[in-house]
Amino acid sequence: MSGFRSAFEHLVQASADSLPLPGGGDTWTRFEALSKWAAQDLSLGRLVEGHSDARAILAEAGSPPAAPGATYGVWAARSPRQGTTARLESDGWHLAGEKPFCSGSGLIERALVTADTADGYRLFDIDVARHVVSTRPDSWQAVGMADSQSETLEFGGPPLPFDRAVGDAGFYLDRPGFWLGAIGVAACWYGGAAGLVEHLGCTLDPHSPDPVLVELGHAAAHVAAMRHVLEDASREIDLDPIDKQGRARARAHVVRHAVHHGALRVMEHVAAAGGARPLCHDRRQGQRAADLYVYLAQHHGSADAQELGRIAVAGRAWN
Per the confidence metrics, is the pTM higher than 0.85? Predict the structure, then answer.
């Protein structure tokens, strides 16, 4: 894990902190960089995406990072059984409760954490070492995305300074950038799928049996289609970064739906082309497949599709 942490920290310092902000006129450069890192290692791509998203959120709020140069994550998962709260007192905000799927646990220095408060849902910039008081044992047993260390954490510690509340109540979910960041995740899914296809292509030759090349061709077509979807979305985002037209939410659902389904098709065609051998005898390719399967499972496909269905019934355009 020390080697993985070093790779993550080096990538943050060397490249991730200089990524263009979403909606700043060069969004595709941002998404393409995230996809390339994910193609190399999806757990690494996941953490860099979280760090980059945190920096974008702070910029959107007009709130500088509490510690310049620190590695960041965004911990916003919600669970019916596990909740995180923050109580405002005279000495600051008191954070308490648990949160699952905290990617980068034990690896990142600071995190943007969502919590329920008396005046609504808020976001806080926390010092992980001071405000994470325990880790639920064995809460991350994953094989896929194992290195992302997405454990269940308990919060507490000293009060947070007043200025560590990021934005007003409701800011995290209501801002236009929420939906831009959602597409950043899809860029990582696309990168994971592209990595599978690229690696398989390197192991084959032009004289491979026709059925094998057919499956590789199907997979490559899906990768190209996903790229076009993301490129088109990037252009639309740069034309309307503050979502004056009200299309950001639906656009994010469409892009994530298309990329999610495309990545699943890629996994099917890669398995059909290579069979079990590369997934069993090539550890990196097997890990890529396991990582992508787990990462795709975070998609809220049914709920998003239902919302798009309502838009279609209403006859409203979303592109």
Answer: yes
